Structure formats: C-alpha cells, structure tokens
Amino acid sequence: LGLDLEELEEIEEDAGLGNGGLGRLAACFLDSMATLGLAAYGYGIRYEFGIFNQKIVNGWQVEEADDWLRYGNPWEKARPEYMLPVHFYGRVKHTPDGVKWLDTQVVLAMPYDTPVPGYQNNTVNTMRLWSAKAPNDFKLHDFNVGGYIEAVLDRNLAENISRVLYPNDNFFEGKELRLKQEYFVVAATLQDIIRRFKSSKFGCRDPVRTCFETFPDKVAIQLNDTHPALAIPELMRILVDVEKVDWDKAWEITKKTCAYTNHTVLPEALERWPVSMFESLLPRHLEIIYAINQRHLDHVAALFPGDVDRLRRMSVIEEGDCKRINMAHLCVIGSHAVNGVARIHSEIVKQSVFKDFYELEPEKFQNKTNGITPRRWLLLCNPGLADTIVEKIGEGFLTDLSQLKKLLPLVDDEALIQDVAKVKQENKLKFSAFLEKEYKVKINPSSMFDVHVKRIHEYKRQLLNCLHIITLYNRIKKDPAKAFVPRTVMIGGKAAPGYHMAKMIIKLVTSIGSVVNHDPVVGDKLKVIFLENYRVSLAEKVIPAADLSQQISTAGTEASGTGNMKFMLNGALTIGTMDGANVEMAEEAGAENLFIFGMRVEDVEALDRKGYNAREYYDRLPELKQAVDQISSGFFSPKEPDCFRDVVNMLLNHDRFKVFADYEAYVACQAQVDQLYQNPREWTKKVIRNIACSGKFSSDRTITEYARDIWGVEPSDLQIPLPNLPR
Q1: Selecting from 3.60.20.10, 3.40.50.150, 3.40.50.2000, 2.60.40.3580, what CATH number does the domain 443-679 have?
Q2: Which residues carry this modification: N6-(pyridoxal phosphate)lysine (predicted)?
Q3: Is residue 669 classed as helix, strand or coil in its secondary structure?
Q4: pTM, full prediction
Q5: What is the pLDDT of residues 391-400, one digit of tens each?
C-alpha cells in the first residue's frame, strides 16, 4: 500500500492506563502468561482518560488530558452481551432467610476485550477492561416531575466511574470516586469469574453448580497491590448472602482463592479508607470486614493473651480521630499467599511492614522477583541487539532468557564486542535524530548517554542526580582545559499533579539545563535534557540508546524497580544503590560489573537511630555546599532567586530520603563510570556480561514461579495447533 510500517506505529496512541511500574508489570505479566500457555485473564478499568500527557512550559510541568480513544481503538471489542450490574449505597436488612442489600444505585459494567497473543505459540488470552454505563432508567424512577432532561444528563454521574485514571504513583489519596472505581472493577470481575465457573463443565457434578467446593481448584485471583482488596469481602458477600454458603466454608474458599502482591513499603502509599465512606457507599462490605476482623482478632488474642498492643497493630480497623480500614491488613488476612517483588523487599515485608502477620503465619510469605517481557523490551525495541544475539546463540533465548548465559564464554570475542558497540552507537544516533526532530535539541552522540527515567518522587532521588550534574558543571568551570568525559544527562518522568515537591524537581532539572546548555565554556562536554512526556513508547526509544542507567533510590524504598532490568537487557551499565532488584542484578552479573554505591538498608537504619543531620554533610563537603548554595541563591533561577527555597529547605531540614548522606559515594562512583567509559573495549565487555546475566529478569521466570508456588498450575511451552488445523 506504499505505507511505512514504522510511521504507522508512531501514530498509534499508548494505552496509558496505569501510573508506572505497577501497570507496566501487569502488561509484561499478560505477555508472559500467554507465552507460557496459561489460561489467564487480566482485568481492569477502561479509563476514558489515561495518565495525563506532560507538557513542559517555561520549565514547569503542565498536564493535559490523554484522550487516547479520540480516533478509536482497533484492538478492543465491546462485549455488551456480558454487561453486568454493580451496586452502590443502599441499606442492609437482616432477614430470617439471610442478609439483603437493598435500595442500591446500579451502574452497569460494559466489558471491552483486547486479545493478548503469546509469542509464536498460537495462544491468545484476553484482557477484559470494564467501562461504566448508566442503566436506561437511571434517575428516572425518582418521581422526577418533568425532570427528564436533568435525569438523562445525570447519567454522567454513573459514567464518571471509568472516566479518568488517578495519577498518583506510590501515594494514597482517599477520594470517594477512587473507592468507587476499586469496587466497580472488583464487583464486575467477580461476577464474570463466577459466571464462568458455574457454566464450566469442570465446575461440579451438581447440575446447577451451586457447589463452590472446587472453586479454589479452578480459580486463582491475584491481587495486584491493595487496589482490588475489595475482592475479599465481595467474594464473601456473594458466597454467604447470595449463594448461601456458611461463613466458615466461604472464608476457607476465599482464602484459598486469593493471593496478594505487595508493591510498596512507603507508609503514605498504603490504602487506609475512612470507615464513614464505607458506611454510605458499601454498607454490607463494611459489616463483612468487621466480621472478618473480629474472627481474626479472636484468633490472635487466643494465641497472645493479654497482648492488646498486638491486637491494635494487627487490626484491619485503625482507631483514631477518623476510623480507617487498612486494606493491606485485609489482604494479608484474606489471602493464602503474600509476596513481595524482589528478595530484599520481601525480607522488609516480613521484618517490618507485616512483622506481626509473619510471626503468625510465616508459611504464607513468599518472594517473586519482578521481571520484564523480552519480546517488548528486547526484540521489539532493540532489533539490532536481538539480531546480534541470535547470530551468536540462536533464538531460543526469546522464550527462555536464561539462555543468554551462552554469551558469557564469548565475552572476549572481538566480533561480538564490535557488534554490540556498533548496535549501541546506531541506537544513540537514531535517538539523537529523534530528539533533534521532536524537541529541536542537538546532542553529541559520542557522549555518554546518562539516563534517569521513572516517575518523579523524592524517594527515587532525582535530586541526587541534580547535585551530581551541578558538581560536574562546577568542575568544568573551575578547570575548562582539563580532559573531561562528555555526558548527555537525560532525566524524564511525570510528577503527580498534586505533588508540589516533584513538580519543583522538574523545574530544577529544566533550570539547570537552561544554564548548563547555554554556557559556552561547557560546550558539548555536558548537556542536560528533560525528556518530556515519558511513557512506554518513549521508553522503547531511549532505553536501547542508554549507556548508563541510574537506579539511585534510598536503600529500602524501591520495592523492585523494572526499568533497571530493561536497561540491563539493552546494554546499559547500572549505577545504583543496593535496593530493590538491583541487589539481585549485582548478584547475577557480579557486583564488579555494576557501579554500586551508597548506604545499605542496615546503614540507613543505623543513621535513623543516630539521627540524620544533613548540615553535617553540607558543612563537610565543599562541592556539595557549593551546589546547594547555587540552587539556593538563584544561580539557576536568576529571574526568581528564591524559586527553589522549598527544595533546599527540605534537603537541609527534613529529607526523609537522605540525599546528602549518599552524595560523596555517588560522586566518587560516577568518577569510576567516567574512567571506564574512556576504555570502550572494557566498557563493552562489562555490557556483554550484564546482558548475559540478565536472564533471571524475564517475566516468564516470574510467572512460572507464581504459577507453581501460588496458583497451582503448570506452564507449558507447547505450540497449540492453528485453529484451521485438526486438534
């Protein structure tokens, strides 16, 4: 047709239906489940507006609506025949023949199915996303005298449920609409699961299949963080109130069916819903949660008589000025398995966040280190590197990434060293051309591409990167004649619209850029680029071009990270702390093949006990003091000298993430990076070692572990026959 496929691909909108690692992990998992031949479904909400598009205006983030469905979505198929009702509000009536939830408001859930093909195995699974629809009699039965037009316009109230994604990453904001979204996806999904169970020939001998004994043998529900935690009381409500299963049996079924994955240890991210909100929105679920909690606390009290503080700590209900429901506690109690997403994180989960629960049921707690799909994150985004690897070891690694180990004996193979370096250079040239075309910025493609892309958050310490950039700038200015390893520092990521400090961090990066990039003394030794509107489609371009991957969160704060794995697989070296999956990356490749620096979890804990004093570092380290004073004095914001007052005040007086404590080690480690980069052959050999050792971080491995250890199913690598061939 005379069309260029690459041009066509560029036109397609990202389905930006998640915030960061959590949603992207689910997408990788769907790809792996299909590729491993598992009969698995991904359920979620079909948001009309996904994560906002980020524009940078005068150096500040400005949000605009992501109208991703504007031109239609060819991959989805609406399934009105499976539309289901979801109930809100109303009242609870206890009758001799059971509990009734009455006078509810109904919203319809319309499913849209998207196919999820496995890699070359003829398996196609389904992702089913729910959209909210008002019923046709919505508000019309309310004896509205002549209020017909108003009643039809009020349909928007119901349909707003699936209107927009809440843009917070690692932060809980207790809004009623968000709670409605959480119940909406859970209620629709559970009805769908139960319908499928009942109509299945495997369900039960019982002709109408009212027998739920076999339910956990046929169904596994994995809770991706606490956002679908209501699945636990909702399944109980259906079993007890609707299907008339007795409480203890229903609880056994629920626990055997559900499993919970924890994705963060930051206290501000944990979901704690006000009881008052439940009282009006989900009154029956509140009763069920109280009953679950009562039985749970009775059990704990029997094992630890007189330990009232333990009961307080372990309760699902938090007492206080505003009574709250701790959704994480509900998930732990209502699941048969609880897992963290990297080894170090799973240990922190057991030793601090859920310590009391671990003491009660240690066998419940597991680790499942995250992974990424090599189909998207190598084959699709980096065909040059994939070809180079195929030439050396065949293509088996695409469905068994551990085979990358076969590259280890070839680490001194001159042809391979050359090819890997050549592919990286080509990717850098291509990305440079893209930046020039899209953002009119000219960069030096022979400079080191130093990349820090992820959501903007204090714990991810983009500020530590900023301090290093300023330090490099000051060193160039101090001795312009000195040889210097040229760098292009790229920082990208979205800040939650209400997160003031994150927005200030973006403004700081752009402000540093406008000084550094226009200083003739610096030339092309140092460039600072803020990558606007970081999203999956941009990640697919920047990651294959990166030389250095920054993974510099304070030890003990990043549960896993998955961007770190993408960079490793695509031939970048990592500078990072011993946090999240970085620990296992260093273990797989050898710590000497990463640039590891800074405090370990133990050091952070020791510093907390001692008391972190930022001024101590500020006074002791002249380069740090100079950088901080420049930010503070308005050197980077001459038109508004106290622009960054809040940032400096935070760093000096209440920095939970201890940026200054790791500054010295970070800057020293960056000097080692510079030193190695000057020896391209040794650099590339380290790159090859990293790629060869990245096999563990395939989501195929992760999903195989979930399947065997939690869901009780066996993955298969068999290709099923094409539909037009006999079975």
Answers
A1: 3.40.50.2000
A2: 566
A3: helix
A4: 0.97
A5: 999 999 999 9
